[in-house]
Amino acid sequence: MKDTIIIGGGPAGMSAAIYLRRFRKDVTVIMKDCGALGKTEVVENYYGFNTIGGCELVKNGIEQAKKLGVEIIEDEVINLSFDGNYVVKTSNNEYISKTVLLATGSNRSKLRVKGFEEYVGSGISFCAICDGFFYKNKKIAIIGNGKYMEEELNVLKQYTNDILIFTNDTKIEVDVDFPVINSLIVELQGNEKLEKIITKDNEYFVDGIFVAMGTASASDFATKMGAEVSGNKIVVNAEHQTNIPGLYAAGDCIGGLLQISKAVSDGAVAATSINKYLRSLS
Ligand SMILES: Cc1cc2nc3c(=O)[nH]c(=O)nc-3n(C[C@H](O)[C@H](O)[C@H](O)COP(=O)(O)OP(=O)(O)OC[C@H]3O[C@@H](n4cnc5c(N)ncnc54)[C@H](O)[C@@H]3O)c2cc1C
Description:
By secondary structure, the chain is an alpha/beta fold. It has 2 domains: 2-108 and 216-281, FAD/NAD(P)-binding domain (3-Layer(bba) Sandwich), CATH 3.50.50.60; 116-212, FAD/NAD(P)-binding domain. It contains 7 helices and 17 strands. α1 (11-22) packs parallel to α2 and α1 (11-22) packs parallel to α7. The mean pLDDT is 93. Flavin-adenine dinucleotide (FAD) binds at residues 7-13, 30-33, 35-37, 39-40, 43, 45-46, 76-77, 103-105, 215-216, 251-252, 258-261, 263.
């Protein structure tokens, strides 16, 4: 069992890992890529560097953390749960820890179609384990792709057999007992609640939609754990703890200044409070 699993290896996650390791904690970082800095050709405003490539800065952080003994795993986290300890499920494995730091950056995949924003919370959900129960034996759609969608679908199957899968994923390996629709969604319609999905070729009446596009974000994991989320930002206290004991968040996923310097600082603060929390357990 790990002391801490950090989901995300950008400036927030890796800074926290470095601090935690120096506190002699057993820490693992799980990351799938360079995050926001992978899209950044040159960074020119970070202290100590005149210019540095975004991914190069992330790689420097990885090397520094590895030298200290941080375990770094390249994988995608697809689920987070709690059974007395935190259980972090990736595409390839499962890991257990006493605490978790969410540091996945700022994205939550949205559907950029008319009607989407209007029905979030009124028929559109981002969390199968939280809201699946409300759709027992109802007609629902899941919109998404990849391993994360498969994971969410596995949860939804426990509640209903009436599921439409909307995906652009041609290699989908899910249970094909469900209809798979590849046609482009153009609009979502309803009245008080969402009622139908309109694609380029057809329209489909549904009671609800679950969104699981691309990679699960910090706010997806926080929502699953029952942690407070505001918009797509995770609510934390000054110590970067969420309202769930042992669950922390840092960097762009908590909002504020979306810059490297603030992410690095968040990571350091979160690591210090995680260390304090771990000491209180022993
Ligand atoms: C185009 C662009 C240019 C920018 N330029 C600058 C700049 O010049 N200066 C500056 O200070 N800031 C800049 N920023 C902002 C800066 O990149 C971010 O503020 C900073 O990277 C946030 O750090 P973070 O650790 O919170 O998230 P990120 O750096 O986004 O790291 C997120 C990490 O989470 C991982 N992850 C996400 N989901 C999962 C999952 N499900 N499973 C496993 N791993 C996951 C990613 O792989 C990544 O390792 C720029 C951002 C962009 C997009």
